[in-house]
Amino acid sequence: MSAAVAPFPRVPLFATIAVLGSVLVLSATARFSGFATPPAAPPVIATTELTFSDLADGGVAVHDFYTGKIISTIAARDDGFLRTTLRVLVGQREKENLGDEKPFMLQALQGGRIQLTDMATGQTVELEAFGQNQINEFLPLIQHAESKQP
User: Fold this and answer.
1) Each residue of 55-100: pLDDT tens digit?
2) How far apart are alpha carbons 105 and 89 in whole angstroms?
3) Could you tell me the residue range of the domain that residue 17 belongs to?
C-alpha cells in the first residue's frame, strides 16, 4: 500500500504570486511615472580646470590649464588626500594609455559639494563623500576658480 500524497497548499502559492505581482507592478509604476528619478545635479558655482606636473624636489605643481600659471604646490612628503586622489586618477589614465593633454576639472556645487573630474577618463570623484577635512585640501584650488569669475 502506498501512502497518500498531500496536495500542494494553494493558499500560500497564490499569496506568493500576489505579493510578487504587486512588487512588479509597483516597481514598474514608480519607474515609469518618474517617482524613482534621481534628483537633478545642483548648479555649479565655480569651475577651474587644472593640470599637474612633477617638480624637481618630488613635489607636484598645480597649474591653471588655460594660463599655465602655477597656482599651488603640493610638498613631496605630503601624502594627503589631494595627492592620493591625484595618484589614483593619474594611475587610471596610465592604465588606459591616455596622455596628460586634457585637464582635471574641479567644480564647486551649490550646497557645499565639490567634485573633481578627470576630463580624459570621465571619472568623477565626489569629494564630500570623504568628509570636510578632505574638502578643505581642495578649497584653495576652488578659491582660485572663484577669483577668476567675472
Assistant:
1) 888 788 888 998 889 888 888 776 678 878 888 888 888 888 888 7
2) 12
3) 8-38
